[in-house]
């Protein structure tokens, strides 16, 4: 096969054959196709797209470059959730043990944050002793003892995607729906889950800024999962404002524990319960009500088992940032807007996120909100508190928040509904 012919086919708006896709993905992973050639192909795909058959072939070819996990030895169905990422999106933390408490196994391979969105592993690593890297045997043992495991994907899972994603990141080719969908789904299918619920975020704090693009991504991913034999559904959910009140690693762990204790912000509780119901439905597990399992302590028990099984201390003291700064409400009225991207960017600049993959994060850094859009507020009352390890970080965080919130007379702010739409095969 000739790589230039593959590039030219896509450049000229042709469809790549199954053989061309299989070959180019394999050869790139083995180092036989150069980065500049693959980046040219990725740009041609970004500009000219791929049809459903090509995307499915691309996804399967990436899966074939690594191992595919198998949980068929377990005595109950498996279910997983993937979020396309947002600000304050800590849902996996209460959701995984909740679904385990209701009778499905949750084998979740997660990622770290990059840019203004947080990563589940960074959040969990703020718990003293908790370990993200597990062998396959350890994963199985945590699953058996706790019902849920959340850990880092090993290097053997879809290695083509690891290499290609790093290349897309530096060549302006991340924002292609076929490439995003195949990247996410190759890892989720290789993870071996029997069913999957996708939480596709929409709004300023998300990858997909509008409902039409989010719907296209969701539809593409649901088709990929379904074609691969994974029962897959997607919800489009709001990311025009942050989820919950806490944004930042340890701050979000504390909020998740509140939810597991039967409290917590209403939007986090509502989305956690809705996603749990979808996961249990997709897995064919019935008989337990997730809302009940949050109230009766069984989800909390599963959380404690899951954290302990990965070396963490569920009663350990979470890290706190050394410095805080409170922002007050500029006027009295209704908080009509609190922009997810602005808050996410502020948390990132406070130290909660990283600029490069190898950077460390500050576990205690982030933003605590004291009001959400729609709330009545008074001039001078605390609107949010910034947390950072050094006061020098506050100025750039304040700059990120300029224009990110508004107080007005309207009592009905124009917000996206928390759950916008459900997408099925
Ligand atoms: N997350 C992924 O895993 N891949 C993408 O391409 C985008 C987001």
From TrEMBL:
Domain Pyrimidine nucleoside phosphorylase C-terminal residue range list: 334-408
Keyword Glycosyltransferase carried by entry: yes
MF terms in GO: 1,4-alpha-oligoglucan phosphorylase activity; thymidine phosphorylase activity
SMART domains assigned: PYNP_C
InterPro entries (alphabetical): Glycosyl_Trfase_fam3, Glycosyl_Trfase_fam3_N_dom, Glycosyl_Trfase_fam3_N_dom_sf, Nuc_phospho_transferase, PYNP-like_C_sf, PYNP_C, Pyrmidine_PPas_bac/euk, Pyrmidine_PPase_CS
Domain of life: Bacteria
Gene Ontology biological process terms in this record: pyrimidine nucleobase metabolic process; pyrimidine nucleoside metabolic process
Residue intervals passing through the bilayer: none
Name of this chain's protein: Thymidine phosphorylase
Species, as recorded: Nonomuraea dietziae
């Amino acid at each position: 096969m000739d790589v230039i012919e593959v590039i030219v086919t896509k450049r000229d708006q042709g469809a790549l054959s199954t053989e061309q896709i299989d070959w180019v993905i394999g050869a790139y992973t083995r180092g036989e196709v150069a980065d500049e050639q693959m980046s040219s192909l990725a740009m041609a795909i970004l500009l000219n797209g791929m049809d459903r058959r090509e995307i499915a072939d691309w996804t399967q070819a990436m899966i074939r470059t690594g191992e595919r996990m198998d949980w068929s030895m377990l005595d109950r169905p498996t279910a997983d959730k993937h979020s396309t990422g947002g600000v304050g999106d800590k849902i996996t933390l209460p959701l995984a043990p909740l679904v385990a408490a209701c009778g499905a196994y949750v084998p979740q391979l997660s990622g770290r944050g990059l840019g203004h969105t947080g990563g589940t592993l960074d959040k969990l690593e703020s718990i003293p002793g908790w370990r993200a890297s597990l062998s396959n045997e350890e994963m199985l043992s945590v699953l058996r003892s706790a019902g849920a495991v959340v850990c880092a994907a090993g290097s053997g899972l879809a290695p083509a995607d690891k290499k290609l994603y790093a290349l897309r990141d530096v060549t302006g080719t991340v924002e292609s729906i076929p490439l995003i969908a195949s990247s996410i789904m190759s890892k989720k299918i290789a993870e071996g889950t029997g069913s999957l619920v996708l939480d596709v975020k929409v709004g300023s704090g998300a990858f997909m800024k509008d409902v039409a693009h989010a719907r296209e991504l969701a539809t593409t991913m649901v088709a990929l999962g379904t074609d691969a034999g994974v029962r897959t559904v997607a919800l489009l959910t709001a990311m025009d404002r942050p989820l919950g009140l806490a944004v930042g690693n340890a701050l979000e762990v504390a909020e998740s524990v509140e939810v597991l204790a039967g409290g917590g912000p209403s939007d986090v509780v509502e989305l956690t319960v809705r996603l749990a119901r979808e996961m249990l439905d997709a897995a064919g597990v019935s008989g337990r009500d997730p809302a009940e399992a949050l109230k009766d302590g069984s989800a909390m028990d599963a959380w404690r088992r899951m954290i302990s099984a990965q070396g963490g201390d569920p009663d350990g003291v979470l890290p706190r940032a050394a410095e805080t700064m409170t922002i007050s409400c500029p006027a009295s009225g209704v908080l009509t807007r609190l922009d997810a991207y602005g808050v996410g960017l502020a948390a990132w600049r406070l130290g909660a996120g990283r600029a490069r993959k190898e950077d460390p994060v500050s576990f205690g850094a982030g933003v605590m909100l004291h009001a959400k859009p729609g709330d009545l507020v008074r001039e001078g009352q605390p609107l949010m508190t910034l947390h950072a390890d050094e006061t020098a970080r506050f100025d750039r965080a304040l700059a990120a928040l300029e224009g990110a919130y508004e107080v007005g007379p309207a009592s009905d702010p124009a917000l996206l509904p928390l759950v916008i739409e459900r997408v099925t095969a």
